[in-house]
Amino acid sequence: MKKNGILRHGYRSVTRILAGCLLTLASQPVLAQMDASIKLNEVMTNNERSLIDEYGQRNAWVEIANISHSTYNIRGMYLTTDRSVLDKSMSVPERVKRMSQIPNGDARTNLSGRQLIVFQCNSIPAQGSLHLTVKVDNTKPTWIALYNGNATQLIDSVTVPVLAADQSFARISNNGTPADWEVKSADRVTPGIQNQTTVSESKVEKFKREDPYGIGMAVMAMGIVFFCLALLWIVFSLFGLLMRHIDTAKKVAHHQPIKPITKTVEKTLEVGHKTGVILQEGMKTKGIDREVYMAVIGMALKQYEDDVHDVESGVITIKAKETGWDDEYTQMTQFHSPILPTMSKAPKIPTGPELK
Fold first, then answer.
1. Which residues pair with 145 in a beta bridge?
2. Do residues 115 and 66 lie in contact, with contact meaning Cβ atoms separated by under 8 Å?
3. Separation of alpha carbons 132 and 81, rounded Å
4. How far apart are the first and last CA of the chain?
5. How far, in whole angstroms, is CA 143 from its chain's centroid?
6. 294-349 pLDDT, tens per residue?
7. Dihedral (C-alpha) 179, 180, 181, 185: value to the nearest 10 degrees?
8. In angstroms, rounded to a whole number, what is the distance separating the alpha carbons of residues 356 and 116?
9. What's the pLDDT tens digit per position in 227-274?
10. Side-chain half-sphere of 279: how many Cα atoms within 13 Å?
11. What whole-number distance in Å separates Cα of residue 265 and Cα of residue 287?
12. What per-residue confidence (pLDDT) applies to 213?
């Protein structure tokens, strides 16, 4: 029985150890995400007319922000201005002595997404849960660091330069570089609210603010008027030039009719037509359609049947005409015999020198 009890006790111990290990491993991603989401946001080391605590005192203060959209509780974390805690060989108890812990039991330390919280420095925790013993000297640069609840892991830190009265050193971006921080004047200090705020301002209000005397408005109005006048001058100049060109073209067309151009076009079409006929029918046609030849022959035959033609040797004419061709007929008779008319009504063709 005693042996069984020892075994049961050992089993329970091993189970508890394994459960603790699993919980530790599961919590690591959550802790890492929280460490990346909690940042120092704004610091004031010389407070003369800025934030007042519930006791009417003006202390140096540190603002911490949750830059994520999740909720994290920062209770148990540590703030310090002592650089000696950077010594990794320092024991945890010794490091804790040089830090100021954010107390438990205050709901304000449970930061929702994009929420901020301000802690009073150079104070005592007895005055409130947001009062810390962190020492801040406004006569020299101050290094401020935020550690996790184990006082071993550095979450965020910044070196604040010497500031004038009521100035603050604020984070304006989250790129992890010194350029993320800037000095803000007393009228731009924002304890408890985001450092970058958007102010709604209409265009008219902005113009009034940037041009209170209306000089810019007057210059803009005159510029618009002169621009419109210049545009009208360009338009009417181009219109006048166009009308002059149209009038000149009309005068040229009146003095030089386009009839020769029309004839040239017609001749060009005729030559093109003849060229096409030659390509299709050959050079013997000389560019004249075969239908034209047939029509001419048919007309000649018709006129011959109607006794319109005279009779000649190898020559057919459409209409008799006094041309003096018969003056040389005597020279032609030596090559062939005269052809007598075949019809009684046909005129006699002279064949001798008696014509002269």
1. 80, 157
2. yes
3. 12
4. 178
5. 45
6. 777 777 777 777 665 555 555 655 565 565 555 554 445 554 555 555 555 555 55
7. 100
8. 141
9. 999 999 999 988 888 888 888 877 776 665 555 556 666 766 676 666
10. 6
11. 18
12. 81
Question: What does the pLDDT read at residue 235?
Answer: 92
221 φ/ψ angles, rounded to the nearest 5 degrees: -65, -45
Dihedral through CA 287, CA 291, CA 296, CA 298, nearest 10? Answer: 160
Number of residues that this document lists for the chain = 356
3-state secondary structure the chain: CHHHHHHHHHHHHHHHHHHHHHHHHHHHHHHHHHHHHEEEEEEECCCCCCCCCCCCCCCCEEEEEECCCCCEECCCCEEECCHHHHCCCCCHHHHHHCCEECCCCCHHHEECCCCEEEEECCCCHHHCCCECCCCCCCCCCEEEEEECCCCCCEEEEEEECCCCCCCEEEECCCCCCHHHEEEECHHHCCCCCCCCCCCCCCHHHHHHHHCCCCHHHHHHHHHHHHHHHHHHHHHHHHHHHHHHHHHHHHHHHHHCCCHHHHHHHHHHHHHHHHHHHHHHHCHHHCCCCHHHHHHHHHHHHHHHHCCCCCCCCCCCCCCCCCCCHHHHHHHHCCCCCCCCCCCCCCCCCCCCHHHC
Q: Match 């042996």 to its residue by tokens.
A: 3
**What residues contact residue 351 under an 8 Å CB cut-off, 6+ apart?**
329, 333, 338
CA proximity to 36, closest of 131, 156, 124? 156
Selected residue with higher pLDDT from 310 and 25: 310
Its pTM stands at 0.50
CA–CA distance, 54 with 68 (Å, rounded to integer) = 29
